[in-house]
Each structure stands twice: as structure tokens, then as C-alpha cells.
Amino acid sequence: MQRRYIGLVAMVLVLAIMVSGCKSAVGEAAVDPIAVEVAKVTLGTVQSKSILSGKIQGRSEVPVVAKLPLKILSVEVEVGDEVQAGQVLVRLDPKDVAQQVRQAEAALAMAEAVLPPAVGESAAAEGARLANESAQADLARMEELHKQGAVSDQMLEQVRAKAAAAAAQYRGILDKEKAAWAQYDQAAAAVALARSQLEETTITAPISGVVSSLPVEAGQMVGSGTVVAMVVDMDEVKINVNISERDIPYVKNGQEVTAKIKSLNDQVVKGKLTALAPAADPRTQTFKAEIKIDNKDRVIKPGMFAEVSLNSVAAENVVVVPSRAILQKGAHYVAYIIDENNIASVREVTL
Predict the structure, then answer these.
(1) pLDDT in tens, 6-52
(2) What sign has the CA pseudo-torsion 263, 264, 265, 266?
(3) Taking a C-beta distance cutoff of 8 angstroms, is the pair 132, 167 a contact?
(4) pTM above threshold 0.85
(5) Are 236 and 299 in contact (CB under 8 A)?
């Protein structure tokens, strides 16, 4: 089989001109051949890549909010500080909340003072119970005597009234003691709430990370829900991208990818596809995917943009040549072929 090679464009052009000149200028002095680099045409696999753009985010980006409408007493950190979960970021003025705690504790003490015993009966309840039992026994006896005609209707009604009053008094004491316990529970809940709010005047970091935003200062009044800081976990960053329907058959969880970060002088880093939506977004008809990149040195910053290179379809058993051996001429692509006589000729190729 005849062997053919593709020469590098720049050098082949020189050789082609030299050969042509030898044919047209008969009798001129022979020109020494010029060595060129060649490459053998082979069959191989070509891997197609999709380039997807996305904004870099921290592994966790947590806004820290004030839960109480109070004045800021002090700010304990600065933007860029590394913090640990539970570390104090901002302190609110606790004066008003501390007063509420004292009031709630006083109300709890008053409620506790009138509580019946936790076990057994109170003296009042025991006395009322015994009186009620006696009155009910008297009523039963009188009703029996009334049946026998031994007592008048008037006397029976008096005994019935006395029994009803004794029962009502007993029930009233039990209801009062039950209400005392309810009032105590309510006062205890108020103390717990007030103490919890006092703790919330000290605002701490919800996660370990870096303070990326601190839009408040000492002396400022904040409302409930006001963001006072943003903490970002940067040890790992993520990029959310949208993958087209054409590429989705060739993409899978755990697949390695590369990302080029323009703001870091086109630095290329490796990452891994860690999450892939099982269904397309109905609005964009693309599949959402998440890519995670290790960032222990914290060089990559949230907010940067990256171009993710994702391997997609692969073509097998196709003709493979070095890309630098292909030359574009107008709307076509050509390559120079060298035959067994080292004569170069141009051939149009299809990419």
C-alpha cells in the first residue's frame, strides 16, 4: 500500500514551491531539498468537548441575620477574616432584652409561689374533697329516707343544695390549681423566650469560613431579618452549569472536568461533576449540573467566572492528523500530502 504523509503547512509550502520550480525551469541548477516534519495519517478516536460557562460559588454561602430590632453595640470581625462556627461576629445592645428577662423571671417567681404541691393534694383541695364526700353521703342517706317518707321535700332540697355547693367548691379549687400550673408554665415559657432573645443579642457565625461581607457598623440600628454579615466556606467551590440535551447522554455523575478561570490568567483546574438533574428544566430544556473543585489554597474566589470543558460525544475509527497540518483556504480546509517520491500536493479535506 502506498504510504502518504501530511507535512506541516509552513515547511511544505517551501517544498512545494521548490518542486514546482524544478519542473518549470529546466536546466536551472538543482536546489538542495529542505527537511520538513511529517506525520503519518492514522485512524483513531476524537473526543468532542462542550464548553460551558458558569459563576463560581463557595461550597456554602450563608447570610447572617439579626433576629432582633436593636442597636449594634460592636462588630467583632472584618471582611476577609477567617472564622469558626460559633465565633462572635456582631454584638447587639442587650440592655432592653436584659430588662425583659428580669421581668419574666419575677413573674415566674410569683407564679411559683401559688403553685399547689407537685405530688399529692393541697390542704385546700383535701378539705374540699372531704367536705364534698360528706355532703354526697348525706344526700344519699336523705334520698333513701325521703323514699320511706321519713323526711320532707323541703329538707331533701336543702341537703341537695348543700351537696351541690360542696361539689362546686371542690371543682373550683381543682380548676384554680390547674390554672395556677398553666400560669406557671406560661411564665416559664416567657423566661425561656426572654433568655433566648438575650442570647440572640450575640450574633455568631453559623459555619466555619471567611467573612465575605459586613454591611453594618457599631451604633447602627438594625431590624429583625437584617443581614449583618456573609460567611463563605471556600475550601471547596462549585460551579452550576446547564447541559444541553445533545450532550446529556455522554455525561455522568463523578465525571472529571476541567475549568479555565479567566481572572486567574486562564488557569486551568480539575473538578468533578457531583450532581446532575434527572430531568430537563421545562423553561430552558437543559439539565442542571453542579461541578465541585477543591480550593484548599483559596486562590479561587466566589464570584469569578469559569469556562468548564466537559467531554461529550466521541467519534471512533476516524482519520486523525495534527491540527497544525490543516490549512484553511477560503471556505475550505486543505492539507499537503507527500507521496513516495517526496513530492507534495495539496488535498482538500473535510473536518
Answers:
(1) 443 334 333 333 444 444 444 445 556 666 677 777 877 776 788 99
(2) negative
(3) yes
(4) no
(5) no
